[in-house]
Design brief:
The complex is a heterodimer of chains A (175) and B (358). By secondary structure, chain A is mostly helical. Chain A has six helices and four strands, in the order βββααααααβ. Classes of the chains: A mainly alpha (175), B alpha+beta (358).
């Protein structure tokens, strides 16, 4: 078992995990597919960004910045495939989220529900800001924020992350 | 240790971001998704679509079985209600048929032509974009069913969107009217003002380009104008719910779509439209004076021509055409009605019934 000793956490050894190839490839396809399919029957499901949650989960579990940003880019581009906006909008946003989440994952304990909730809430905001910046600055489109709605969506995604991460822990393999 | 090893993470991040930014810039410049981007999207959509189709059909089957069971329980009460509805609709239909005949006669006089829905294809919604920023649907019908880009997508309630891209034989992507990049030519039913219906980033639907000095009331209905050359004229779009003074001298008009865009499960794609004049079969030859006589109570009654007698211009024509032109310039609609017997005017309603004051 390889461990990274970090003084920023509770001086415990931080564990690094990896995932099998079927999980690394199949899980994003499954969850992004579900995210596209379920709103046909349950429209409120549209508020969940499973791509974002998976990016954060893989990033903080692997604790590798390169791995985190590449995973984020791949998941973001997969989401881009299902939209009609130019290819790369979600890709760039999730690349940065993957990089940031893995950087934080190295420094703090992300195994308890509280930190997972806060981490997801924070990165939902980062994702939103990056997305808005791309839309406004690179694509020249107007951006409107309904702060109350976005805060509610961020909380909903954070709650979902707590349960989803607990479920996905089963797929972790200790490195 | 060289630079790359020391700053490996930053270099990889910069490279990945740069590559995506470049790709984005090229697409924004081109404005169309062609080349490798289209191929990547095609692969992704055709990979996900079959799974979505299977899940939709499975869910639909389970739901149908359950619904059939529930339906059996309420079938008697439902039957009585439907019978009452049927009686009421029959009366409504008789009234509307007369209105429609009158409208067709007036259209014929004006040589009015419009796009008629010729064929439609029913399609099942199998997926969405999965994001709040891109208001799209995926359908289970594609090129094999004759679906092409820019075809209108409707439901019995009204307009839903248009086909944006066709991915292979069995999948098509639909842009909903509440997407910011959509646009539908619209007419307000009462005021006849024309504008463009667009979506907003928050998924609302607005009517744009109505001048600030126009009077638009909440509750007024909107239909398609046909001016966008995508949607046929007269399809319901929605109703006005809120009117505010916006920026740039235009009104800020919010709409309630006629279609519940969040709960679309089946839609109709209009696969062909044909320009047609109104169907005047069975209405008989019509003269301008007859139409005017129906609408102007003060126009004196014309003498009804006898069966078999040659049709002569009616005597009150000068009143109907104040410029002195006789009503011999009878306007006869094209089509089957042209072959109708000259005696047919006897069957015309109102104008030849002799009820108007001489």
């Amino acid at each position: 078992m390889r461990a990274i000793n970090l003084s920023y956490t509770s001086r415990e050894q931080v564990e690094v995990y990896r995932f099998s190839w079927p999980v690394s490839i199949g899980l994003p396809i499954l969850l992004v597919g579900l995210q596209a399919f379920v709103p046909v029957r349950m429209p409120f499901f549209r508020i969940f960004d499973f791509g974002l949650l998976l990016t954060i989960f893989f990033a903080v579990s692997r604790r590798s910045q390169v791995s985190g940003l590449l995973t984020g880019a791949a998941i973001g581009l997969l989401q881009d495939c299902l939209t009609h906006t130019p290819f790369g909008v979600f890709g760039i946003a999730k690349t940065l989220v993957g990089y940031g989440a893995s950087s934080i994952g190295i420094r703090i304990d992300v195994e308890n529900p509280g930190s997972r909730f806060l981490l997801t809430f924070f990165f939902y905001g980062v994702h939103l800001l990056v997305f808005a910046a791309i839309e406004r600055e690179l694509m020249g489109q107007s951006v409107h924020f309904n702060l109350g709605h976005e805060a509610g969506v961020a909380v909903a995604n954070s709650v979902m992350a707590v349960f989803l991460f607990a479920l996905l822990n089963r797929f972790k393999i200790r490195d | 240790m060289n630079f790359f090893s020391r700053h490996k993470n930053t270099v990889v991040l910069a490279t990945v971001l740069l590559a995506q930014l470049l790709a984005l810039a090229v697409q924004v410049k081109r404005q169309t998704a062609e080349g490798p981007v289209r191929v990547i999207r095609l692969v992704a959509v055709t990979t996900l679509a079959p799974f979505e189709r299977v899940m939709i059909y499975t869910g639909e089957s389970v739901r149908r079985v359950w619904k059939n069971y529930l339906d059996l329980r309420d079938v008697r009460r439902e039957n009585l209600r439907l019978k009452a509805d049927s009686e009421r609709m029959r009366l409504d239909r008789a009234r509307e048929q007369e209105d429609a005949r009158q409208a067709r006669r007036i259209q014929a006089l004006l040589s009015f032509k419009e796009q008629w829905m010729d064929t439609t294809v029913a399609a099942q919604v199998i997926g969405t974009s999965g994001t709040e920023t891109s208001r799209l649907l995926y359908l289970d019908k594609g090129a094999q069913d004759g679906i092409k880009a820019d075809m209108p997508v409707i439901t019995p309630d009204g307009v839903a969107g248009k086909v944006l891209t066709v991915y292979g034989d069995h999948t098509a992507q639909v842009l909903l009217i509440n997407d910011p990049s959509s646009g539908v030519g619209a007419t307000l039913v009462n005021s006849r003002l024309q504008g463009i219906v667009k979506g907003t980033p928050t998924g609302e639907v607005t009517l744009n380009y109505i001048m600030g000095d126009e009077a638009v009331q909440p509750g007024e209905a909107l239909v398609t104008s046909g001016g966008d050359r995508v949607f046929p004229r007269g399809l319901p779009i929605g109703t006005v719910v809120k009117v505010n003074m916006g920026r740039n001298l235009f009104l800020d008009i919010k709409l309630k779509p006629a279609v519940d865009l969040n709960r679309l499960e089946e839609v109709l794609v209009i696969t062909s439209q044909k320009p047609r004049g109104p169907d005047t079969a069975g209405l008989g030859p019509i003269r301008a004076a007859d139409i005017l006589a129906q609408h102007l109570p003060g126009v004196p009654q014309t003498a009804t021509p006898q069966t078999g007698a040659p049709q002569t211009p009616p005597s009150p024509a000068p009143q109907a055409a104040p410029n002195g032109q006789p009503a011999a310039t009878a306007i006869v609609p094209r089509g089957p009605a042209q072959n109708a017997s000259p005696a047919k005017p006897q069957t015309r309603p109102a104008a030849s019934e002799g009820t108007r004051p001489q």
